[in-house]
Structures are given as structure tokens and as C-alpha cells.
Amino acid sequence: MHADKVLILPGWQNSDVDHWQSRWERAQGYTRVEQHDWMRPLRGDWIARLEDVLLARDVARHGPVVLVAHSLGCVHVAAWAAHSKNTHRVKAALLVAPPDVERDDVRQLLPSWAPMPLQPLTFKSVVYASSDDPFCAPERASRFAAAWGAELIDAGPRGHLNAESGLGDWPAAHERLLQLIRDDAASAMPGSLSASSL
After folding, report:
1. What is the pLDDT of residues 126-164, one digit of tens each?
2. Which CATH architecture has domain 3-188?
3. What are the pLDDT digits (tens) for 18-71?
4. What is the pTM of this model?
5. Cα separation, 93 vs 74, whole angstroms
């Protein structure tokens, strides 16, 4: 029903078969944005790829999308939004476990991704952060969410919120995604008030 409304954005090294993103893709028919190099991700290449995918969509027919990002995918969304003139093609984003790409150890792994883009997002966003994420301290995740204008949800001590976190199909987060999609549908109804109509 909502398959054409959702784009999956994995992080570094892609999301494996047991990752909640892959489970949602299989169960719901969501579309994964494929990158040509998952192991040596270049910020500019990933931004260009997302722009191409969004421009290829028929917005008049399908409407704007909801992005579902994990880890580096969150930085990917923020970096794309800071540079694109097509952010109206995105209605909302679910951003899970953003890594601190300015931290020395993470910067060495992902050298082209610092600094963290901290411009406010022009679309509704929700950040899930774990209290013991090995790639991002909770206070940093809170700072990122605040800068993006995102709602912050504390996922508890669940590591990097990936396959190793034992989330399975992660129904609570999927319900939050469906809520974002429903909010999108409600705002598109005739007679509803939107920023473009003011």
C-alpha cells in the first residue's frame, strides 16, 4: 500500500539480510537506494545518487517520499538536504543511529564525511538514538536531532540499532514510519493547510 512512498538508505557496508531495513524491504516492498561503492563511501557520490533517484520519480503521480536511513545514511540525508534544490521531493525522514563523523575514530573510517551537516531539515524528521551506540555519544545524537529540527526518540541501550541489536522486524519503529506516511497523506488531502498554501 505504501511501498512506493518509502526509500531505504543503508549506511556504510550496506544493511545485511537480518538488518531491520532489509526485513522491511522484503516484507513491505520498499525500495533500497543502491550505491556503487558501499565499502568506500564518498559523500559527493552518495548525494548525487540520491538526487538522481529522487529526480527520476514521478512526484505528480506518487507524491514525495519518506526516507528511512540508518547510520551513515542519516548523514547522507542531511548532507543531501543541505545542498539539494529538490528537498520538496521528500516529505519526511526516519533517521536511525546517526554516527558522529567528526569523532577521530569514525573520521578515519569515513574520511570524506566530516563535518556533520547541521542545517535544519525542511521536512519532518524523527531520530532514533541508542544510549550505548559505539559510534555516537547520546549527547551528540541529541545535538544532531536538535540541529535538524527532528524529534528524538531514545531507543535505550541497543548498540548501533542494527542486526546485532536484536531488533528483528522492529515493529515500534515501523509503526512510527507508518505514522509519518499517514501524516504525509493527511497533509496532502484537499482542504488541508500546508506551508505552500500560506
Report:
1. 999 999 999 999 999 999 999 999 999 999 999 999 999
2. 3-Layer(aba) Sandwich (3.40)
3. 999 999 999 999 999 999 999 999 999 999 999 999 999 988 888 999 999 999
4. 0.92
5. 9
Which grid cell is 126?
524523527
Dist. CA 36–CA 39, nearest whole Å = 9
Residue 128's CB: how many other CB atoms inside 10 A? Answer: 25
Q: Point out which residues pair with 6 in neighbouring strands.
A: 66
Domain boundaries, the chain: 3-188
79-100 confidence digits (pLDDT tens): 999 999 999 999 999 999 999 9
d(CA 173, CA 112): 29
Cα–Cα distance, 24 to 21 (Å, whole number): 5
Q: From CA 194, how far away is CA 198, in angstroms rounded?
A: 7
Q: Which residues contact 124 (CB under 8 A, 6 or more apart)?
A: 91, 92, 93, 180, 183
